[in-house]
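Data availability excerpt. The first of two example chains:
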Amino acid sequence: MGFNNMLNIERSYYVATANRTTDHPRLTDVIDADLVVVGAGCTGLSAALHAAQRGLKVVVLEGGKVGWGASGRNGGQMSPGLRKGALGLVKQYGEERGRLIYKTTFAARQLVLDIIEKHSIQCDLKLTGHVSGIVKKSDIAHYEAEADCLRRVMGMDHLSILSSSETRKLVNTHYEAGTFSTVAGHMHPLNYTLGLAKAAVDAGVTIFENSAAIALERKPRIRVSTASGAVVARHAILAGDALLRGLEPEVNNRIMPVGNYIIATNPLPNAHELIPSDAAISDSRFVVNYYRLSADGRLLFGGGEKYTPRPPRDIAAFVRPYVEQTFPQLRGCKIDYAWGGLVSITTSRLPHIGRRGDVLFAHGYSGLGVLLSTLGGKILAESLVKNTPEFETFAALRPQAFPGRTALRSPLYVLAMLWYAMRDRL
């Protein structure tokens, strides 16, 4: 049984409330295409949709079911930007290049909103903002500097600094201070992904489910094989993120798959009292807690510290202490759903987008893939023949490979998590 199958996607709130079930066949033949896409999450489906709209014959291979990777399991928080903030981008790349990276990234927000509107995707969209709860007083100065950098360098005025009491009016728990972003929100990520798949199919894309890619050959043409068939194509896009195993060393060596765990409570009669703003919430810990309300009044809560890559035996029991620490009034509450997923992180915490000849890839969104994945797919589709400026902007961010390559990723991750957990507590 693969790691991802141990994370209970079938027991997730999202699967239970999906608008529709997918029913795409398994690949059982050798077929030709202009483009073969590996992975039917938001990166792959966005790439397929945008390539098909440009007249290409596109085939998507999905090892499980549409959206059953990170795209349909995540917290649903729509926060524009990168894991490295505006201040970090300017510090590393300077003001001019930092501004270019930030504004290229920020385009993901409008792209997703346009797709939702154009294709009438029902995904519980809420543009109610995002609160980041600041856990330590010593961190407040950093967030003040971040808001100043956004205004002064990026020309963005969407982030405000809140006092502890102002933060509590938006989310009813204690933080030393907080930030509020007016351009963020949240949605049902699986329903968005399923809507994206339908849009791709309507544009002429063929999707095969239960058709895991097991081999990639480049000559004489690109050939991606499954256990029972193959696709021969001019171009390939690898969009399997943390679940893409062995097809391309350039991809595998630069991401670390990290398990993350989410619960959904039963519908709460006092849900609005927990988060009066109905915003998406996260905190300033390195191992982030993040949560929001569902459309039917449940608390969806993810996070907690886990120092080994194997999932906990009881996900609900693992997450519960973090829920009850945040909201003591929920002590003993009923948890209806509990599941996990894999987040792919890079050494730089910036996405890894690039190509090797006619094989392109995008991954490593480091926890901010809800918006970035759709943008990554569009950029790949537009760069099949010639790199676009957006592609070049992201490709130049190429992160270093993890020390020791794949063999040492997990041990190094465990050591890093122990260190940052200790730093959070101190």
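And the second chain:
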Amino acid sequence: MPEGILCNKQPIVTDEQLKLTLGDKGGKQYYAEMEQLEVDTDKLWATIQNTMKSRLKTWLNICARCGLCADSCFLYECNDRKPEQVPAAKIHATLGEIVKRKGKVDNAFMRRTMDIAWSWCTCCNRCGQFCPHGIDMGIMFSYLRGLLFSQGFVPWELKIGSGMHRVYKAQMDVTTEDWVDTCEWMADENCEEWPGLEIPVDKEDADIMYTLNAREAKHYPEDIAEAAILFHVAGENWTVPSEGWEQTSLTLFAGDWEGCKQNVLHVYDAIERLRPKRVVGTECGHAHRATVIEGPYWAGREDGQPPKPFIHYVEWLAEMLRTGRIKIDPEKRIKELVTLQDSCNYVRNQGLKNITREIVSYLVEPGYFVEMAPNKEYNYCCGGGGGFNGIGKYRPQRNIALLKKREQILDTGAKLVIAPCHNCWDAIRDLEEEYPMGIRWSFLKPLVIKMMIVPEHLKPKDEEGEEE
């Protein structure tokens, strides 16, 4: 069977196909069809010839398989240091073999390669810091995922995630109407406690346009309210777009290159339409990487920059604390051991390590912040990045991958983990569920709201005009 009903070489582009694939609980039919999916070897080799640029070719050729990348990989360490888990071994056994065979590989090989590409690597890019030649296996695995996606060999959940973006312009089935209604709901829900609070939609020429993760609109609307409260207290002139508000990219995890471009263009179109002075993206690592770091290149922007300055939420929050537009009550600072999870995608890949620690310096009483070891750009992946968190087929492997982060957190003695990234937050939540150790985890927004000094004019008044 060359093409299945659910598992095939075409991306999901209709609501009908999306619902049909979603109805296959756990991907049972999908994976059964995958076992019969024929590899278009001619197309595979043609794709490699057309897309594999000199950098990847050079990396494959100059890799000496010296093994210096081994200890850089948390999956190698978590899986009993098996030789086949060494990053160099993983890429040569997969991408290297495809190139060596000029695309002449079979179904069994592609299914095995899919398993390695999504459960043996999170594309965290840590290995590239230790290779004497600067070879980055994370980038190579991202490329490999694209080849696999084009042939239909992609995990069921990520086929669906890619389809969600293409059909709904978001990683979840949140329509424009749903999104705008959620903004109105959150503003109404919080206006009594925060008089004058608004979530402006499609306001032109604002100082800030805010973009976020569709999970917030779908499952955690309080996060949208928290962002609004902090913009309100800081006195920001801000807005959200009715379309182009979704910053995340499951297409990035899936290897859906064309889908990645579409996602970015939705956001960039909103920027061009509303003309904000700058854009702030939510506490999400891969969303920032997809839209700000890699996004300009997918969108074909020659300057390598988004249409307007585009910063991560931690950069905006640090600026507000630094300038005093948001002030922290010293009496409310955290006075227990706390540690910080560095997100691979905006710490290792954009260098925002000191920004997050500047924020911590305002929130945590001196002497109570404990670094993980290693930390900053050398910190390990949370254990669930690159789509690993959401793939049921690989949940046992993901749970093993969490053990490195568990070890790091236990070594700090901290009971509170600040995790300004959705994937990290999810992984640490799951870590506590799988291997209970009595920890808590939090984004930055709720912590700041609990500790900040609210200006008198923003406090609610009782019926007689007195402060409550």
